[in-house]
Design a protein that fits this description.
401 residues, alpha+beta, Butyryl-Coa Dehydrogenase, subunit A, domain 1, Butyryl-CoA Dehydrogenase, subunit A, domain 3, 3 domains, 12 helices, 16% strand, globular
Length: 401
C-alpha cells in the first residue's frame, strides 16, 4: 500500500531557486565544496561588500583566507594547489560571484590566468618558485596580455622583447590588467626577435627596474577590484624568466579559456543573487494594498528570470562535465560565455525593475551586480568575438578579418 502511494503521490513542490532539481546533478563532494565556499562568502564578503564597492577597496586582507580554502589555482594539481574538479571549481566561482564579481575576478586572474600559465608552460624551477606561494595567497600575480591598442586582437600587440646577450629586454605597455599594481609577479606576453617574431611569455618580478603600474581610477564597475596599466621600460630579464613551453598565441589563449570557463559559472551566481533579491522584495513590497508578487507582470518577470537562470546553470554544468572528461572545446566555452553573461545581465536588469527606485541603491545588490556584469560582458572576449567563434564553428568560415 505504501509503495503504491509513493508511486502515485504528487512530487514535492519545487523550490523557487531549483525548479528543475538541478541539485540532483551534483555529487555529495561537489555540494560540500560549494557549501564551504558559500559559507566563506556569507562570512567574509557579503557583510563587507557594500563598503568595499563604495570605497573602491580591494580586500587584500582576505587573500590568505582564500588560499587556506584552496580557492587559488583550485583546479590545478600539485604545488600546493587543491586539485579539484572543473565542476567544483565552477561552483566555487558561482558562489564567489554571488558575493561580488570583483572577488571571483581576482580568483580567476590568480588561478585561471597566471597560475595556469606557469603550471602549463613553466619550467619545474618556475613552478616550484611561484605556484606554492600563489596558491597560499602569500603572493599575488597579474596576467599581462591586453594592450591599449590590442584588446580583442592580441595578435597586434606591440610589447616587444629583444635579445641582449643571454638576457631579454622588455619594452611596451599593457592595460586593464587585474592586480597589476599590487602583484609580486606578472605573466607578461610579448613579441620577440626570434625568427618569425613569436609571442612568448615572461615571468616579470614587479620589483624589477623598468616595471611600473598605474591603477585605472573612477571605474563604475568592478569597484572592489584593481585594474592597472603596466609599463615596461628597458626591463632586463634573465633567460630563465621565459616560460619555456609557451610559444605563440595558443599559450595565452589556453589560459583565457580557463578564465572564461570560470565566468560561465560565476555570472550565474550574480544572476541568482539578483533573482533571489527580487523574489524576496516582491513578497514584501506592497502596492495597491497587496504584495507586488501577486501582480501578473511581476510574476512574468520572475518566471523569465528563473527560466534563464536554470538554463544557464544547465549550460555551466554540461560544459563542466565535458571539461572534467577532457572533451571541452573552445566553441563550448564561447557558447557558455556568450549565453550566460548575456542572460545574467538581463536577469539583473529585470530584477532592478521589480525593486523600482530602491534597486539603484547599495542597500540591495542588484545594481552592483549589473554594473559588474557590464565589465564581464567585455573582458575575456566580447560577445561579438564569441559569436564569431561559434559562427566559424557552424559555417567553417572565419569572419574575424
Amino acid at each position: 500500500m505504501d509503495t503504491q502511494q509513493s508511486k502515485t503521490s504528487s512530487p514535492a513542490r519545487p523550490e523557487p531557486t531549483d525548479v528543475l532539481l538541478l541539485e540532483e546533478l551534483l555529487t555529495a563532494e561537489e555540494r560540500a565544496a560549494r557549501e564551504e565556499v558559500r559559507s566563506f562568502v556569507e562570512k567574509e564578503i557579503s557583510p563587507n561588500i557594500k563598503d568595499w564597492y563604495e570605497t573602491a577597496h580591494f580586500p587584500r586582507e582576505i587573500v590568505p583566507e582564500m588560499g587556506k580554502r584552496g580557492l587559488l589555482g583550485m583546479h590545478l594539481e600539485g604545488y600546493g594547489c587543491a586539485g579539484k574538479s572543473a565542476v567544483e571549481y565552477g561552483l566555487a566561482c558561482m558562489e564567489l560571484e554571488a558575493g561580488d564579481t570583483s572577488l571571483r575576478t581576482f580568483v580567476s586572474v590568480q588561478g585561471s590566468l597566471a597560475m595556469s600559465a606557469i603550471h602549463k608552460f613553466g619550467s619545474e624551477e618556475q613552478k616550484q618558485e611561484w605556484l606554492p606561494p600563489l596558491a597560499s595567497g602569500g603572493k599575488i600575480a597579474a596576467f599581462g596580455l591586453t594592450e591599449p591598442e590590442a584588446g580583442s586582437d592580441p595578435a597586434s600587440m606591440q610589447t616587444f622583447a629583444r635579445r641582449e646577450g643571454s638576457d631579454w629586454i622588455l619594452n611596451g605597455s599593457k592595460r586593464w590588467i587585474g592586480m597589476g599594481s599590487i602583484a609580486d609577479v606578472a605573466v607578461v606576453w610579448a613579441r620577440t626577435d626570434e625568427e618569425g617574431n613569436p609571442v612568448r611569455g615572461f615571468l616579470v618580478p614587479t620589483e624589477a627596474k623598468g616595471y611600473s603600474a598605474t591603477d585605472i581610477e573612477h571605474k563604475l564597475s568592478l569597484r572592489a577590484s584593481i585594474q592597472s596599466e603596466l609599463y615596461f621600460d628597458e626591463l632586463r630579464l634573465p633567460e630563465e624568466a621565459m616560460l619555456p613551453e609557451a610559444k605563440g598565441l595558443r599559450a595565452p589563449f589556453t589560459c583565457l579559456g580557463e578564465a572564461r570557463y570560470g565566468i560561465i559559472w560565476g555570472v550565474m551566481g550574480a544572476a541568482r543573487d539578483c533573482y533571489e533579491c527580487a523574489l524576496r522584495y516582491s513578497r514584501e513590497r506592497e502596492q495597491f494594498g497587496k504584495p507586488i508578487s501577486s501582480f501578473q507582470l511581476t510574476q512574468k518577470k520572475l518566471v523569465d528570470m528563473m527560466v534563464e537562470l536554470e538554463k544557464g546553470l544547465l549550460v555551466a554544468w554540461r560544459i563542466g562535465r565535458l571539461k572534467d572528461e577532457g572533451r571541452v572545446r573552445p566553441e563550448h566555452i564561447s557558447f557558455g560565455k556568450l549565453n550566460n553573461v548575456r542572460e545574467a545581465l538581463e536577469i539583473a536588469r529585470e530584477a532592478r525593475t521589480i525593486l523600482g527606485g530602491n534597486g539603484v541603491t547599495l542597500e540591495y545588490p542588484v545594481m552592483r551586480h549589473m554594473s559588474n556584469l557590464e565589465s564581464v560582458l567585455t573582458y575575456e572576449g566580447t560577445s561579438e568575438v564569441h559569436t564569431l567563434v561559434l559562427g566559424n564553428a557552424l559555417t567553417g568560415t572565419p569572419a574575424f578579418k
